[in-house]
Design brief:
By secondary structure, this protein is of the alpha+beta class. It contains four helices and two strands, in the order ββαααα. It has one domain.
């Protein structure tokens, strides 16, 4: 049974002091069993984790698989260190499946034909439209 709480309020008015007793039984501060109901607060994180497992992880795995396939295909086209291939893939991805003219200076060793092959490989692997 919920204990009845009594709070004394002192109202000070001019020169008079009144004491007011208020019964707070209708404010259920502590439930009968002693534990608050946190069902809503605990189901929300469970829902988020479920969404991550159901959707986000599969999308991330798909992206990583395509990334690895693209990387190995680019290694078959040109001979570059892994770090430069990673940078090249990031630059192409950031620029919507093409390597910008400004960034081509970073890869001076690559010919225009090789860059076009790499862009085409990226577009095929990630199923992205090319430059129109």
């Amino acid at each position: 049974m919920l204990k009845l709480l009594r709070v004394k309020f002192y109202l000070h008015k001019v020169y008079k002091t009144r004491q007011l007793d208020i019964n707070l039984a209708h404010f259920q501060l502590v439930p009968k069993d002693g534990y608050p109901d946190l069902t809503d607060q605990s189901t929300y994180p469970a829902t988020i984790v479920n969404n991550i497992i159901a959707e986000d992880i599969f999308q991330e795995m798909d992206f990583l698989q395509k990334y690895d396939e693209t990387k190995s295909a680019i290694q078959n086209i040109v001979d570059l260190p892994d770090r430069q291939i990673d940078q090249l893939i990031r630059l192409i991805h950031d620029n919507r499946s093409t390597l910008s003219k400004r960034r081509r200076d970073t890869f001076e060793k690559l010919t225009d034909v090789e860059i076009q092959k790499i862009e085409k490989t990226f577009q095929d692997m990630f199923e992205m439209p090319g430059e129109s």
